[in-house]
Amino acid sequence: MKIKRQKQAKKTISFYKYNFSFREPFQILIDGTFCQAALKNKIQIKEQMPKYLMGEIQLCTTSCALKELETLGKQLYGAKIILQRFQVRKCAHLKNPVPASECLLSMLEETNPHHYFVATQDRAVTDGLKKIPGVPLLYIILNTMVLDKPSQASLDHVQAVQLGELVPLAQQQSIRSLKEEQGISQKVGERRGKKRKRKQSNPNPLSCLKKKKKGVPTPALKKTEPGEKKKRSRHKRRKAAEGDNMAAPVVIST
């Protein structure tokens, strides 16, 4: 049974590595309910979880989860001691703490950009994270830790990426970071709303020139055939001779 469970965990981890770019050390986000279940079932989280996940891990929690255990009193004192040993990640509720379930879901955002595993026994958290693609779930059942199979939201997301309907999450994050570096992370609606104004330019100087009048076409010269003598034109001489005759006075002899 243990070997079968290990094989299933290896298959699930490979799924998240390949499709959602999970890398070691795996970040495990833990709440008080998981620590309480581990304490009850005598599970050593720091020793057993790396062996089960077959890799290095970083155990972490939030200040809201710690605050919730403090308010619940002595019944969960042991779980509080365990949870205090882990790294505390910053959340958006430092001044106004919220329930641990709400805080953990806010850490995942819409696409789990920090690649968290979530270890919890809280039904509200498990129901909420199954709607977010790319979130591995860890829980304790029958004295053993179990890595849940990928949720339907994760499977649907992978199928959509394979069909070309969506951009992979890793590419979305790299595109977003590049836009922020270049300072062009502007909303699409704002960008579309603004119209580019045309600059007023001077008229083309060539278009202002007056059109030239077309000259009278010159008659084409008659080509002489080979062997034929070229005739000399005496048209101008005749006119000149006629002009001289008109100008000369007529003398009448008596």
UniProtKB/TrEMBL annotation:
InterPro entries: Fcf1/UTP23, PIN-like_dom_sf, UTP23_sensor. One of its GO terms (cellular component) is small-subunit processome. Residues 229-239 have a biased composition (Basic residues). The keyword Cytoplasm does not apply. Keywords: Nucleus, Ribosome biogenesis, rRNA processing. Residues 178-254 are annotated as: Disordered. It is found in: Nucleus, Nucleolus. It holds the Pfam family UTP23_sensor. Belongs to the UTP23/FCF1 family. UTP23 subfamily. Involved in rRNA-processing and ribosome biogenesis. PANTHER family: RRNA-PROCESSING PROTEIN UTP23 HOMOLOG. This is rRNA-processing protein UTP23 homolog. It comes from Poecilia latipinna.
